[in-house]
Amino acid sequence: MRIGNLGGRAHLVRGNLAIDIAKASDGAFGPEPGDLFARWPEFLEWAVTARTDAAVPYRAEDLRAPVPRPRQVFAVGLNYAEHAAETGLRAGGVPSVFTKFADALTGPHGRITLSGPSVDWEVELVVVIAREARDVAEKDAWAYVAGLTAGQDFSDRDVQMSGTPPQFSLGKSYPGFGPTGPVLVTPDEIDLAAPIRLRCWINDELVQDGHTGQMILPVGALIERISAVCTLHPGDLLFTGTPAGVGMGRTPPRYLAAGDVVRTSIDGIGEMRHVFAAGDAG
């Protein structure tokens, strides 16, 4: 199934129609999107029987972040070998894990303010955790996944690379630098045995075109490694890394400018669109 956030309320999304979950369930489930995960098995059981007479048309532009207030946001760097090579950084079998602070999260459409002259793009598959996960084996990891959504790990490279060691989390956490959407898609709707294609365009120029088969550590391995250290909670987000094609890997480097339109697409999930605006000093 596909779950969207319209006006801060959780909806089942079916084609161009949406069903308000709280209303359709007569209050059995609340309107807050993040609250669904506390009763995820019950919600899934109810959702397949949800009445469709309450479905109404919606505009894609009105969708917000599917999980607007996660408890934790994990992100993984250098999880695609070609991306690691283009940045000049070394990738290995141990994931480079950081956080994007929750204030960076935003929805799948809208305007984002540039933080400076070195803002870069990174299309990423984002995993949403369904239930508490601690010491999870890779082979069992998908049982802890509520769904998948598209994400962008926008990054201010000057801030990220300042200092020793670099400031990954700060450089990637300006307002709007963590868009997700357009919807949360449950794993049963996606062929997980096949690579999932990720693409990003800047002003209609295709700049990234990769797939999850290129990951160094797949989703299950990431969940195993992270849950061995941190407890993952229902609704937590995991940004799983980006394929090659980012701006800092180009010669000369290329970064976003005011007026640039970034379009992000993941097959089976959907598309996001963001316009960048100059900051106070832009």
From TrEMBL:
<keyword id="KW-0479">Metal-binding</keyword>
<dbReference type="InterPro" id="IPR036663">
    <property type="entry name" value="Fumarylacetoacetase_C_sf"/>
</dbReference>
<dbReference type="InterPro" id="IPR011234">
    <property type="entry name" value="Fumarylacetoacetase-like_C"/>
</dbReference>
<dbReference type="GO" id="GO:0016787">
    <property type="term" value="F:hydrolase activity"/>
</dbReference>
<dbReference type="Pfam" id="PF01557">
    <property type="entry name" value="FAA_hydrolase"/>
</dbReference>
<feature type="domain" description="Fumarylacetoacetase-like C-terminal">
    <location>
        <begin position="73"/>
        <end position="275"/>
    </location>
</feature>
<dbReference type="InterPro" id="IPR051121">
    <property type="entry name" value="FAH"/>
</dbReference>
<comment type="similarity">
    <text>Belongs to the FAH family.</text>
</comment>
<protein>
    <submittedName>
        <fullName>Fumarylacetoacetate hydrolase family protein</fullName>
    </submittedName>
</protein>
<keyword id="KW-0378">Hydrolase</keyword>
